[in-house]
Amino acid sequence: MEDIIKDLNQISEEEGLALVELAKIAIREYLKSDRIIDLKEIPFENWKKKGASFVTLERKDTGELRGCIGSIIPFRPLYQDVIYNAIASATKDPRFNPVSLEELPFLKTKVSILSFPQILQYKDPQDLLEKIKPFEDGVILKLGEYQGTFLPDVWEQIPDKEKFLSHLCLKAGLPPNCWIKYHPEIFIYKTRIFED
User: Fold this and answer.
1) 89 CB contacts (<8 Å, ≥6 apart)?
2) How far apart are CA 18 and CA 22, in angstroms?
3) Which domains, from first to last, does the chain contain?
4) pLDDT of residue 194
5) Beta strands in 49-184 (DSSP E)
6) Residues 45-73: pLDDT tens digits?
7) Distance from the CA of 131 to the CA of which of 10, 38, 165, 186 falls in 20 to 30 A?
8) Beta strand 146-150 with 138-143: parallel, antiparallel or unpaired?
9) Residue 105: CB atoms within 10 Å
């Protein structure tokens, strides 16, 4: 197996909080100079390993989402994944206008590190409902070319399993009953979240 982050407990609190700082610096630098930062020295060994991350930006006052972009499968060093996803979250999330430099002090930054997705075998919609764990599982739904994912923290907004899966179908560009009608592939993963 290549050098990838296999266990989320590998990442210490110190490393995780440093990733949040890295995300903030990457966004600030990009908004100021259009430059994607790179590190001359990598401060932690784990950062060199391939890792998948999501960077979420929220307004500090209301908790409203302001951008969220990430990778599901590890394909580049963790620190680079965080840099690129941080910039994309601030500037390329199609749901929002790009973040402005003036807005940055009012935003909270969250970095979620993802475990490697595992396929979830299930017989029928009822079995699927029994097997997914709210507030624990991040869920990827895949049907042909269509794919969407919700991080585990989305359960806080949509705690109902049926609604959660219906919204996930919509996010993937499918009808809301796709999980009942078509038996899509389901993968689950865990996350470890660090925030400022």
Assistant:
1) 27, 55, 56, 57, 67, 68, 69, 70
2) 6
3) 8-115 (3.30.700.20), 118-190 (3.30.1490.150)
4) 97
5) 52-59, 65-70, 107-114, 118-119, 138-143, 146-150
6) 999 999 999 999 999 999 999 999 999 99
7) 10
8) antiparallel
9) 7
The residue assigned the tokens 């994944």 is 81
Q: In what order do the strands lie in the sheet with 107-114?
A: 65-70, 52-59, 107-114, 191-195
Specify the pLDDT at position 7: 87
Q: Which two tokens stand for residue 138?
A: 């991040």
Question: In the block, which residue shows the tokens 């990838």?
Answer: 4
Contact assessment for residue 26 and residue 36, using Cβ atoms and an 8 Å cutoff: yes
Q: 171, 88 in Cβ contact below 8 A?
A: no
Entry pTM? 0.91
Mean of pLDDT values over 74-85: 97
Q: What confidence tens digit (pLDDT) does each residue in 144-179 have? A: 999 999 999 999 999 999 999 999 999 999 999 999
Q: Count of H helices and E strands in the chain? A: 6, 8
